[in-house]
């Protein structure tokens, strides 16, 4: 954890969680020890252990989108930490349908927790002296969002919209290839080139790298096979 005199949020830890290797991330305010958990996935014990190990109290559980691999444990985590569940309004129907998605993937699903607050483009999720900014980036799902952490080493949590050298699939219900490409090209790749990108799956990258090397955007844009 960073110096307790630091202002704003810092990235504390990120780790892949079951069932599909979603990258869960924890950001926190060093002074107040308040934390936001991003995309907790399906390993609540691991998330709780990480919070305890760093001496943090969760004040929000935020979701880049409502597919089950990103929010399978949200109900239990909300009960045990008291942290509210937050996601974009356009993904509420997907979230309500978690049980059916669980049956499709052979994954047990408990009843979804109540979404305490819906997020919209430009919203801020406050935590101590800092916040995460919400960018609505539809395409992978209608309510897909990215979260931007400002600071000396800024981070964009891009969910399943943008990956290292790849992009999110759009063949699930509510997906749109045209929306996905528009979101990436107009909302994400216009950000500063040195901005670190932590995707919902896989390795980190930067805005500049993806602007230059991602085969699915810009002049190289073509549908994901």
Structural overview:
The chain has one domain (9-220): 4-Layer Sandwich (Metallo-beta-lactamase, Chain A), CATH 3.60.15. The protein starts with 8 loop residues before the first strand and ends in a 12-residue tail after the last helix. It has seven helices and 14 strands. With 225 residues, the chain is of the alpha/beta class.
CATH superfamily (homologous) name: Ribonuclease Z/Hydroxyacylglutathione hydrolase-like
Sum up the overall morphology in one term: globular
Question: How much of the polypeptide forms β-strand, as a percent range?
Answer: 25-35%
Q: Biggest β-sheet, characterized?
A: 6 strands, mixed
Number of domains: 1
Distance from first to last alpha carbon: 41 Å
CATH architecture: 4-Layer Sandwich
Question: From the alpha-carbon coordinates, what is the Rg to the nearest angstrom?
Answer: 16 Å
According to CATH, the fold-level topology is: Metallo-beta-lactamase, Chain A
Q: Classify the helix fraction into a percent range.
A: 10-25%
How many E-type strands? 14
Low-confidence stretches: none
Q: For the record, what CATH class applies?
A: Alpha Beta
Spatial order of the strands forming the largest sheet: 1-2-3-4-5-6
Q: What series of H and E elements makes up the topology?
A: EEEHEHHEHHEEEEEEEHEEH
Figure out the total of helices. 7
Structure class: alpha/beta
Overall average residue pLDDT: 93
Key structural traits:
single chain; six-stranded mixed sheet; alpha/beta; 30% strand; 7 helices; 225 residues; globular; Metallo-beta-lactamase, Chain A
């Amino acid at each position: 954890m960073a110096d307790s005199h630091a202002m704003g949020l810092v990235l504390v830890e990120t780790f892949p969680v079951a069932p599909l290797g979603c990258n869960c991330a924890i950001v926190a305010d060093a002074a107040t020890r308040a934390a936001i958990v991003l995309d907790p996935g399906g390993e609540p014990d691991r998330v709780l252990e990480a919070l305890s190990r760093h001496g943090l109290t969760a004040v929000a559980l935020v979701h880049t989108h409502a597919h089950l691999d990103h929010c399978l444990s949200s109900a239990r985590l909300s009960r045990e930490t008291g942290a509210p569940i937050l996601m974009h309004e356009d993904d509420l129907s997907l979230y309500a349908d978690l049980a059916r998605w669980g049956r499709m993937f052979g994954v047990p699903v408990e009843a979804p927790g109540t979404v305490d607050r819906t997020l919209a483009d430009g919203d801020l999720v406050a935590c101590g002296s800092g916040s995460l900014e919400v960018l609505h980036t539809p395409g992978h799902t209608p309510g897909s969002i990215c979260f931007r952490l400002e600071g000396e080493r800024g981070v964009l949590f891009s969910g399943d919209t943008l990956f290292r050298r790849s992009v999110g699939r759009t063949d699930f219900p509510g997906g749109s290839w045209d929306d996905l490409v528009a979101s990436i090209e107009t909302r994400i790749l216009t950000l500063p080139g040195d901005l670190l990108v932590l995707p919902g799956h896989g390795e980190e990258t930067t805005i500049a790298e993806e602007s230059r090397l991602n085969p699915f955007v810009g002049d190289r844009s073509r549908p994901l096979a």
